[in-house]
Write a structure and sequence with these properties.
The chain is mainly alpha-helical and 268 residues long. The protein contains 11 helices and no strands. The chain has one domain: Orthogonal Bundle (MetI-like fold), CATH 1.10.3720. The chain has helices at residues 2-28, 45-52, 54-87, 93-100, 108-121, 128-152, 156-164, 169-198, 201-206, 213-220, 227-259.
């Protein structure tokens, strides 16, 4: 009796969670400016309108620049964290790692306001650069969590064998460690990129006069005639996010298969 109930509950939960997302493409291809049923007809004009919008293109370029920079920096920092956590022992190690992972549990509104106050006190002008700083802060824990699994599953005897054969620490990392953890690095890059691209609260506080894609979407919600174009944009963003997460999961599983550890679950 419990199993059918749990299945029904799971189906109802997933429907509640994803039904709004499934409505995006319906209204994105609907030939009407009013978001309501019944649907009037099929059209692609909202996608064409989206492609011709200059402000949208500028916000998209800003978001892509910020997301790419944040992903690279967060992954690099995540590699340092994962390497230190899995290979070295030092006083206060647990506290240091916990402090780095703290943004995972802190409300973003608190992080955003704190960063805004600090940056203004330091005299730093709000721009895409300040958004990158904020996104690196929140993406680094995710990157560290992913890479910690990759580095933790790496057989230390491979590195020790390289040292015995005369390789330096740098050449061992470049020739042995880096190729083996590369699936985790790619997965970290894609996850960090997706998080940064979709993030709104930090960008809202720190973007200044350089809006990102989420802040641009928020600003357009005041104009009812622009809602169908936002639906089209949302459809593209959802499709892109699903694609990136699928690729990230592929590389995560590839890394698990290469190291031979037990798969305890991933993103999908």
């Amino acid at each position: 009796m419990k199993i059918p109930f749990l299945r029904l509950y799971a189906m109802a939960y997933l429907l509640f969670l994803y039904a709004p997302i499934l409505l995006l493409p319906l209204f994105a291809f609907n030939d009407a400016t009013v978001i309501s049923f019944p649907l009037k007809g099929f059209t692609t004009q909202w996608f064409a309108q989206m492609a011709e919008n200059e402000a949208l293109r500028k916000a998209t370029l800003n978001s892509l620049l910020i997301a790419t920079s944040s992903a690279v920096m967060a992954t690099a920092l995540g590699m340092f964290v994962a390497r230190a956590a899995t290979r070295f022992r030092f006083p206060g190690k647990g506290g240091v790692v916990g402090f780095i992972m703290l943004p995972l549990v802190l409300p973003e509104i608190i992080v955003s306001v704190s960063l805004l106050v600090v940056l203004l006190q330091l005299g730093v002008s709000l721009s895409a650069f300040t958004v990158i700083l904020g996104h690196v802060l929140i993406c680094t824990p995710y990157a560290a969590a992913i890479l910690n699994t990759s580095f933790g599953a790496l057989d230390r005897s491979l590195e020790e064998a390289a040292y015995d054969l005369g390789e330096t620490k740098f050449s061992t990392f470049r020739l042995i460690t880096l190729p083996l953890v590369m699936p985790g690095i790619i997965s970290s890059l894609l996850i960090s990129f997706t998080i940064s691209l979709d993030e709104f609260i930090i960008a809202f506080f720190l973007a200044g006069a350089e809006p990102t894609l989420p802040t641009y979407i928020f600003s357009q919600l005041r104009f009812p005639k622009g809602i169908p174009m936002i639906m089209a944009l949302g459809t593209v963003l959802v499709a892109m996010s699903v694609l990136l997460l699928t690729i990230a999961e592929y590389f995560r599983r590839r890394g698990v298969a290469r190291t031979g550890i037990k798969d305890t679950g991933g993103f999908l």
